[in-house]
Amino acid sequence: MKQDRVLIIDDDVELCRLLNDRLQPEGFAIETIQDGQTGLKRATLGQHDLIILDLMLPGMSGLDVLRNLRSHSSVPVLILTARGDDVDRILGLEIGADDYLPKPFNPRELVARIRAILRRVSRDPDNSSIVIVDNVRLEPSSLKVWVNETELSVTSLEFNLLETFMRSAGQVMTREDLTEQVLGRKLGPFDRVIDVHVSNLRKKLARISAEEYIKAVRGMGYLFVTRSRSR
Questions:
Q1: pTM assigned to the model
Q2: How far is it, in rounded angstroms, from Cα 222 to Cα 202?
Q3: Terminus of the chain with fewer CB atoms < 10 Å: N or C?
Q4: Does pLDDT of 46 surpass 60?
């Protein structure tokens, strides 16, 4: 059975040891790095299925590691932070992290988050049909999106988010439903992860077309606007 390879970039040696002891019995192959620059070099080699990234690192900050990594790789990233301020967490998501977990955390929650992310990225795209809504075309087999015949650059999570919207075009999707379907977990209190990913996707769509594709519905959730729909 294939082991999922997880790279942990965190300068807390004791935490890395504890995570290694906790994750290995769950079937993960673990590698730990204690500084940002070395971690970035390892992460860009394409040898890992998921990166666990602390934001507070010596030499190069976790945000800089993530920013540089996203210019080379779409490997899923789960960020860890001990900061109480929301700013860095939100910035990490905007740069391209898939999810975040604040320290201290329950190891079982970490395992659940890792499994949820890996389930999302390991799906078989060949079993999904092409989705076309008005001038947006989404092709699961190649993980590509076109808007007005212009290719839209998206992360794997943004692709799944857009596909979820488009397959329910014209219907309001609650934040709870989007979190469960896209992130693979329950929506937590004060949880803004799905909102940031929706915001990122809306900004990318706006760069290509002036049309409003994803509309916020006050008190309910989000709606993918459509005039017609086909699959």
A1: 0.90
A2: 11
A3: N
A4: yes
